[in-house]
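Reproducibility note. Readers wishing to regenerate the assembly model reported in the main text can use the exact inputs given here. Chain order matters: entities are listed in the order in which they were concatenated for prediction.
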Amino acid sequence: MKIQTILAAGAMTVAAVAAQNAQAGAVLDGIKAKGFVQCGVNTGLPGFSAANAEGKWEGIDVDVCRAAAAAVFGDANAVQYTPLTAAQRFTALQSGEIDILSRNTTATTTRDAKLGLTFVGINYYDGQGFLIPKALGVSSATELDGATVCVEPGTTTELNLADYFRAKGMSFEPVVIENINEATAAFFSGRCDVYTTDASGLASIRTQMAENPADYVILPEIISKEPLGPVVAQGDEQWSDVVRWAFAAMVEAEEYGVTMENVDDMKANSTNPGIQRLLGVSPGMGEALGLDEAWAYNIVKQVGNYGESYEKNVTAKLGLERGLNALWTDGGLQYAWPVR
Amino acid sequence: MSKPQNAPGDVRSKGLVDYLNDENVRAVLYQVVAIGLIVLAGWYLVSNTLYNLEQQNISTGYGFLDLEASFEISETMIDYSAQSDYATALMVGLLNTVKVSLLGIILCTIIGTIFGVARLSSNWIVRKLATVYVETFRNIPVLLQLFFWYALIPSAFPHPRDALEPLPGVLLTSRGMYLPVPEPDNAYTLMTIAAVIACVVIYFVRKWAKKRQDATGQPFPMLLAGIGIFVGLVLAAYLAGGAPTDMSMPALKGFNIQGGYNISPEFMAVLIGLTVYTSTYVAEVVRSGIQAVPNGQWEAADSLGIRRSIALRKVILPQSMRVAIPPLTNQYLNLTKNSSLAVAVGYPDLVSVSNTTMNQTGQAIEAISIFMSIYLGLSLLTSLFMNWFNKKMALVER
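Running the prediction on these inputs yields the following structure tokens for the assembly.
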């Protein structure tokens, strides 16, 4: 009898705890309670996310996290960073170790639907390319038959690589190293003929990590579509909305010409109803998202608009022009959903 | 409690309290409760995990094993391509783990024994050198040693275009070592069969030789005879198979060296790293084993006029084995488990392939459960084998 009672009580406690553990809508509450956003970033990809000489994280991916923090707390510095390899990133997000994954991650069906994730925007439109030493005299990816290729595991890059060589009837030998620094070191030491990843990543490796960038060329072929963007876990729609609109606000600010410098002036003087809505002069947007009305103002003031973030991180560090990432009005693909 | 006592001797109708006070009943009861709690805890963890995964819309199950892997693996011992399924990919990883572990175990035993004996040498230089070797490599974390070897190998050798050729057909490059191998031929199957037969023959000859020595005291040159039987039989099979001479020679073609057998820098780094690291522990095990044999054994052998080298081989080492085998088993298990660090230097072992699988499918729990069970299985197999070996070597009490 007694034993049965104990067992029953035990089972009940267990059931109660189990029910407590998974609670929808908990992410944003958790972030507010702890006072900062836990942001998963690349272990080191200059232009996207890398620690600078002072140990501060910067890059276009880092700015998405900073924008989210600015929207929630009014303080873009309320972010803590977790550097992750490609293979670690989704587990970290699924387990709740990080609140947002902003790590040059390609949006795909499997990831969105099967891994319990939500892609909330595309902050960089990219495609996969090949980096190769000039000395090899190769001018096209179609000449790569039999090459040894360095690639990071657990990436779409690894799959595209196999697809591309299979489609072209060529063979290759992969060298798969998880840590990007180890992988690039292997490439520069001559272990591989070719390094493959997204074209922006190649530019980053070439300009920031090669001893002499002029010794390396990026081949003209772009073999895939790589829409890179921030990801959150499914289950807290309010939090995914915050991140989605924090990024949209950056693009919208650029569309309206609102910059870090003129944002105070715009807030005080602009008569454009769109700008007034964005900056919280006419209230409503903040309330809709469960945030302060100055959410977008804080983003632009502290992080800057999308164009500023791109200019500061990608153009200045990697020398890459806007290309696909120009605003739609300039013939690019960046097109913010209207904040209204 | 209030229940009246039953008549003495009527065991069957004892009250509940008496029943619970029975020592035997209690012993069983405690065990039932303990098992119950463990099962409950396990059930809680599993059901809670499943519930949470479902809440987060993460798909579960092992169905992904049949899907196409679509990634390539550099070193495969079985047929594998990007079109193969995940199960095959994991098999490739497992075989690579087994390959590097098995070779590592054999090599670390040989090297470790040499250094273990050398540490007890009467020669000062040999003794000190062995001590330096053991103390250096034992005290540096094995992961750092792997990084060290992996950084060293590609940068120490030239690009395939200017490959070093120390022996004809053997190429040393930053992409590893290339060895010439014979082209596939039926003769080699025949030779393998001959090798197996040779081993069986040697086993029986050895049995006979031992019997004879026990009976007459006459020793038999087993080593020479063994080599003779093995080489003779295999050579005969080679000749019978038509003595093929076609070799696949490694040579530069396009980007890489094609043909021959490639030992990749990743494999070399892992094998050297694990072997060197574990051999230091094996050396210590061997040294302690030898020192555990009483000095009287040396003196007894001496007084019979047995040379020191033979005394070591025939008297001391066999006895030290009894002390050494259990800790040696530990080292073999450690080496196998440490091989999972191979993922850091890009050797496609089980963990590396599982990590990729996990990441491409998102099935983290499933992938981890697979490689954990496989490592457990490998370790249990090693233990079983070593326990059997230990029993065989143990002193037979008379």
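We highlight two features of this model. The radius of gyration of chain A is 22 Å. DSSP finds 14 helices and 14 strands in chain A.
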